[in-house]
Amino acid sequence: FVAIACGTYHNVGLRSDGTVVTWGDKSVGQRHGSPTGKGFVAIACYGTRSAALRNNGRVVTWGGGGDFARDETLSSAGYVAIARGRGHTVALQCDGRVVSCGDGWHGQHNDTPTGSGFVAIACGGYHSVGLRDDGTV
Length: 137
Description:
The protein is mostly beta strands and 137 residues long. It is 0% helix and 44% strand.
């Protein structure tokens, strides 16, 4: 494996050949719909949902589990990093902009930063952070 991520009772691994592997519990859909094929470059998990970034810059999400099982769409390409929160996915675009999708019941999207210059992203349960190229958060 070249990357691993942990969700609620399940794990996701990224192999060096670009395939995604899931293991662990699947009682509330954690592993339902996990992607097949090669060409993945990054993975992220939180709760019962997971996400994977393809080498073409597209994001795939899967999983389930009650209130936070909404389908998410990050349809454009050009993403270079992903992060998962408790019902939302955040992606960093190649131009340094940040986008988010998914549940917004707890304000996850209210303060999605505008502009470019971001170089890293991370998520907590109901919040996200971004690191700018000048070192500010």
